[in-house]
Design brief:
The protein is mainly β and 260 residues long. Helices cover 11% and strands 58% of the residues.
């Protein structure tokens, strides 16, 4: 599929997501542009190349839950059929059972339970995944949060692309932990996912573990007296059995974040 075709497909998908989002005004909202640069592995051809990733990321909360999506624009500068001006996107909507029922469902370390539905899309591979499941929200201090999502991992791909895969499941821990040292503000945020093995027409796809923690320093506050707007830091990516292959990746990427 051409780049214009990928963008048209992605635009259609995102427009469809917008129709599914609640129409009520958001209680809170955060939108970011992220620039990452690092040396990432090609799990199919082997080797590693310098890769640039530009990400648009959005999170917001409303009366009964929250929404999260990101779109990655990826280019490794090598025409090898992998990460060649690729587009990758994920979207998740969650619904708080505590908010919907107006009942306090918290106990011990648990803050709330919810339902979650996710959608993953890869342009290069022509892959679409649907991820229905449940969410456990954990009690955290201050502005920190931690969720555990347990979902299905169902292939709903279209047309020609990667071989269709059997159903599997995902367990994902996602959160953010802001903290301060002196008058400097930092945060550690990101996710760790486990996706179980599944089958395809070309053989088994191995289970993988993907961890992508970010360490951020609030540069806007430190230098420009404009907190929570400009951040710099690193993202560490650990990927065991990257994309189901026997390649284990460990990479540090430079990170710049602009929050609108």
């Amino acid at each position: 599929m051409s780049i214009s075709g990928r963008m048209a497909r992605l635009s259609t998908l995102l427009l469809g997501m917008c129709y599914l989002l609640p129409t009520q005004a958001a209680d809170w909202s955060a939108t970011e542009a992220q620039l990452q640069y690092g040396r990432l592995d090609n799990p199919f051809a082997g080797g590693a190349t310098d890769t640039t990733i530009l990400t648009l990321q959005h999170a917001s909360g409303w009366k009964y839950g929250d929404n999260f999506f990101f779109v990655d624009f990826i280019n490794d500068g090598v025409r090898d059929g992998f990460n060649d001006t690729d587009v990758y996107a994920e979207w998740y909507a969650s619904f708080s059972l505590g908010k919907i029922t107006r009942c306090d469902l918290s106990f011990g370390p648990v803050k709330d339970f919810g339902l979650v539905a996710g959608f993953n899309y890869s342009a290069d591979a022509n892959v679409e995944k649907f991820l229905p499941g449940i969410r456990i929200a954990w009690a955290m201090p201050g502005e920190a949060f931690l969720n555990t999502d347990i979902t299905g991992f169902q292939d709903i791909g279209y047309g020609d692309g990667a071989p269709k895969e059997g159903d599997s499941y995902m367990i994902d821990f996602n959160g953010a932990f802001p903290f301060s040292i002196g008058n400097q503000d930092f945060s550690i945020e990101g996710h760790i996912e486990y996706i179980h093995n599944r089958t395809s027409e070309f053989g088994d796809v191995k289970s993988w573990v993907l961890a992508q923690p970010q360490f951020r320093w609030d540069l806007g506050k430190a230098l420009f007296r404009s907190p929570k707007q400009l951040f710099i830091g690193i993202e560490y990516q650990y990927w065991r059995n990257k994309l189901g292959n026997e390649i284990d990746e460990s990479a540090v990427q430079a990170l710049v974040v602009w929050r609108f």
